[in-house]
């Protein structure tokens, strides 16, 4: 029996990267999972089937678009109905765009706030009543070191992630006496498609080569000089769902190789 047997979890943005690793780690502990995200339908179906086959749990997929509040709400309601409860919610879906603020496209700024911050509000609003009624719940928000410190050219992302840290604290206080903890994880640079994709834009914005962006921009901030792994983020997520973590709430926990210690 895994530590999350009989629990049902929803992880947004789990067709790739950190979210997929968290979903697989929860499944490995026995939780049924709703995965969500964009991508090639065939690839997503392969991931869904693999989770069921590898861990002997039920896994369903929601194609809800995190840009749209009503789709987020429906996703949570459907997940709760399908498995009979929603015990663990991970707000992880996120996008990035890098540009000086004077040139930042309005639609990109708004999309980052919608996906990285507003979607978490809609999902928490829909999920919390059931968690409170059952007197047990875990909400984890994937924030970022950029929830604690800023970097140039990332105004939308830094604003959204600082917002997530505030949302985490506020909901933690509201849920504190209901058996529900609310925390954010603040990774430094994790090697995922999101990081890989921002390299060309950073090269352009800073007039640098790929090697310079990796060493002088990305890992420049990370004293260990190593990328964080998705498995390390997933392991902390599993711990936050344990009973041993029940007094940890309202926090934004850095997993950043020492970045925010500086
Ligand atoms: P990723 O690009 O690998 O995964 C992002 C996920 O979000 C994918 O499943 C994608 O389909 C989904 N997504 C994007 N837009 C969506 C939409 N409109 N509707 C539904 N799903 C959508 O990136 P990742 O690095 O795994 O990022 C996951 C989270 O971790 C993000 O919130 C990101 O800000 C955060 N984070 C990442 C790093 C890093 O270095 N990779 C560092 C700190 C924080």
From TrEMBL:
InterPro entries: 3-OHbutyrate_DH, NAD(P)-bd_dom_sf, Sc_DH/Rdtase_CS, SDR, SDR_fam. Its EC number is 1.1.1.30. It is an enzyme of class 1 (oxidoreductase). The keyword Oxidoreductase applies. GO terms for molecular function: 3-hydroxybutyrate dehydrogenase activity. The keyword Oxidoreductase applies. Belongs to the short-chain dehydrogenases/reductases (SDR) family. Keywords: Oxidoreductase. NCBIfam families: PHB_DH (TIGR01963), PRK12429.1 (NF009093). This is 3-hydroxybutyrate dehydrogenase. It comes from the Bacteria.
């Amino acid at each position: 029996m895994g530590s999350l047997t009989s629990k049902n979890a929803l992880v947004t943005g789990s067709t790739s990267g950190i979210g997929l690793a968290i979903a697989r780690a929860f499944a490995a502990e026995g939780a049924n999972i709703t995965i969500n995200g964009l991508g090639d339908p065939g690839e997503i179906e392969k991931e869904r089937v693999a989770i069921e086959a590898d861990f002997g749990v039920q896994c369903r997929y929601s194609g809800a678009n995190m840009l749209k509040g009503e789709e987020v709400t429906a996703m949570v309601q459907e997940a709760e109905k399908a498995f009979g409860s929603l015990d663990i919610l991970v707000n992880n879906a996120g996008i990035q765009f890098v540009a000086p603020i004077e040139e930042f496209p309005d639609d990109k700024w708004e999309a980052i706030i919608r996906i990285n911050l507003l979607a978490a509000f809609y999902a928490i609003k829909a999920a919390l009543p059931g968690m409170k009624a059952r007197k047990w719940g875990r909400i984890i928000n994937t924030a970022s070191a950029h929830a604690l410190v800023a970097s140039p050219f990332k105004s939308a992302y830094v604003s959204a992630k600082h917002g997530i840290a505030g949302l985490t604290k506020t909901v933690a206080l509201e849920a504190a006496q209901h058996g529900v903890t609310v925390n954010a994880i603040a990774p430094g640079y994790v090697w995922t498609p999101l990081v890989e994709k921002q390299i060309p834009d950073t090269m352009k914005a800073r007039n640098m080569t790929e090697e310079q962006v990796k060493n002088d921009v990305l890992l420049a901030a990370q004293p260990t000089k190593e990328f964080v792994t998705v498995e390390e983020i997933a392991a902390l997520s599993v711990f936050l769902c344990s009973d041993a973590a029940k007094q940890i709430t309202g926090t934004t926990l850095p997993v950043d190789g020492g970045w925010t210690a500086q």
